[in-house]
Design brief:
By secondary structure, this protein is an all-alpha fold. The chain is 70% helix and 0% strand. The protein contains 7 helices and no strands. Helix 3 (39-71) packs antiparallel against helix 4 (91-118) and helix 3 (39-71) packs parallel to helix 5 (130-165). One of its GO terms (cellular component) is membrane. Keywords: Membrane, Transmembrane, Transmembrane helix. It comes from Quercus rubra (Northern red oak). InterPro entries: PGG_dom.
């Protein structure tokens, strides 16, 4: 629907302005015809966005719950006298602290963005930039929260197996993250299509002179 609106706006800019208000034999102007011919597409787009936002909001809520529990659980415990973590001198602990906070912030952001679709009116003008922008930001926040959650889990779990696995810890955690990586790769075509449709303008038609 967003692409159809861009084509309509492109044609609207190229034709004389008086034609935009010139009725046809049924006494309908181009804007009315465009709305009538795209009612079904608007309805289908609204239903798809509703189902997608519901599914993604559930995932974002689960990630937010896990991220909150992870951020409040400090590996190694806290010193009784000073209240500082025992493992604060390790670089891995800094990675754990930062990524757990990033996962929490982005998962909550994704949750709010997807919940905004449930209150949207799904009007024709909303498909121009408002709804695609929310979906793009929501998916971006969701992907960042998933990646941050995995890094946070691996960084926190590293203290458990660092003495046993040593140099083998990194390959083990890499294999552990493969299922989520495959899921993200499967969603990338949709994400790239949204980015391309949102930022790309409608290409102008080229006319080549054919010599006879």
């Amino acid at each position: 629907m967003q692409w159809e609106i861009k084509w309509y706006e492109y044609v609207k800019r190229t034709v004389p302005q008086y034609l935009l208000y010139q009725p046809n034999n049924d006494k309908k102007i181009p804007a009315q015809l465009f709305t009538e011919h795209h009612e079904k597409l608007v309805q289908e787009g609204g239903e798809w966005l509703s189902k997608t936002s519901e599914s993604c909001s559930v995932v974002a809520a689960l990630i937010a719950t896990v991220a909150f529990a992870t951020s409040t659980t400090i590996p190694g415990g806290i010193k009784e006298g000073s209240g500082s973590p025992y493992l604060e001198t390790y670089p891995t602990f800094d990675v754990f602290a930062v990524t757990s906070l990033v996962a929490l912030c982005f998962s909550v952001t994704a949750l709010f963005l997807f919940l905004a679709f449930l209150t949207s009116r799904y009007q024709e003008k909303d498909f121009r930039s408002d709804l695609p922008r929310k979906l793009l930001l929501g998916l971006t926040s969701l992907f960042v929260s998933i990646a941050s959650m995995l890094v946070s889990f691996c960084a926190g779990h590293f203290f458990v197996l660092r003495d046993k696995l040593k140099n083998k810890a990194l390959p083990v955690y890499t294999v552990t993250c493969l299922p989520i990586t495959f899921y993200a790769i499967a969603q990338f075509p949709l994400y790239f299509d949204l980015v391309r449709t949102y930022f790309r303008k409608v290409p102008r038609s080229s006319h080549k002179v054919v010599s006879l």
